[in-house]
């Protein structure tokens, strides 16, 4: 019984430490992106925060870590290419046809239910680019649904981490 209490106390302490690492105004969501079946190279998928005026505000995640192809995501490149901010902590490998990827999105609580949107752009080398493969209003309702894409993204699901 004493060991159980020690393990329980240690688990609570660790969870308090990791929770304090996140800024107080942010919430994390696991995002599962299921890609449609297709033949060809892996898909690049970019997840961006779009402000209420329809402009890019922030890059949240990039699936595809070979930066030499980023310019082919032309709408996003107009935003990102000017600033070239570091993407090191928010990139992963491309996703092949029929596969899925998981990522963590850090969202500012003040942006939820305030007219902001999440945009998922997708492209495959020597194939099509889908500027708005999936674009959703950033609200609590949409963050609890299965949402279907129009291009290479079959669907997206979110799960709150906290």
Structural topology:
Elements: H1 2-20, E1 26-35, E2 43-50, E3 56-63, H2 74-83, E4 91-92, E5 100-108, E6 117-124, E7 129-137, E8 147-148, E9 153-160
Parallel strand pairs: 3-4
Antiparallel strand pairs: 1-5, 1-9, 2-3, 2-6, 6-7, 8-9
Features:
single chain; 9 strands; 5-stranded mixed β-sheet; 40% strand; 4-stranded antiparallel β-sheet; disordered N terminus; globular; 162 residues; alpha+beta; Immunoglobulin-like
Structure description:
With 162 residues, this protein is an alpha+beta fold. The chain has one domain: Sandwich (Immunoglobulin-like), CATH 2.60.40. Helices cover 18% and strands 40% of the residues. It has a five-stranded mixed sheet with strand order 4-3-2-6-7, with helices on one face. A hairpin with a 4-residue loop joins strand 8 and strand 9. The N terminus is likely disordered.
Q: Label the overall shape.
A: globular
* Distance between the ends: 28 Å
Order of helices and strands: HEEEHEEEEEE
Oligomer: single chain
CATH class categorisation:
Mainly Beta
Quick rundown:
With 162 residues, the protein is of the alpha+beta class. The protein has helices spanning 2-20, 74-83, and strands at residues 26-35, 43-50, 56-63, 91-92, 100-108, 117-124, 129-137, 147-148, 153-160. Strand 8 (147-148) and strand 9 (153-160) form a beta hairpin.
């Amino acid at each position: 019984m004493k060991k159980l209490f020690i393990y329980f106390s240690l688990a609570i302490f660790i969870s308090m430490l990791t929770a304090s690492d996140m800024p107080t105004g942010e919430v994390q969501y696991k995002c599962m992106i299921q890609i449609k079946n297709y033949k060809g190279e892996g898909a690049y998928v970019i997840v961006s925060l779009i402000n209420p005026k329809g402009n890019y505000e922030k890059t949240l995640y990039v699936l595809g870590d070979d930066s030499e192809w980023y310019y082919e995501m032309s709408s996003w490149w107009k935003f990102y290419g000017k600033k070239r901010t570091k993407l090191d902590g928010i990139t992963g490998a491309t996703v092949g046809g029929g596969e899925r990827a998981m990522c963590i999105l850090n969202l500012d609580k003040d942006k939820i239910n305030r007219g902001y949107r999440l945009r998922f752009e997708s492209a495959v080398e020597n194939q099509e680019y889908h500027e708005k493969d999936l674009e959703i209003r950033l609200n609590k309702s949409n963050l609890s649904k299965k949402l279907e894409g129009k291009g290479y993204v079959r669907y997206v699901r979110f799960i709150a981490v906290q």
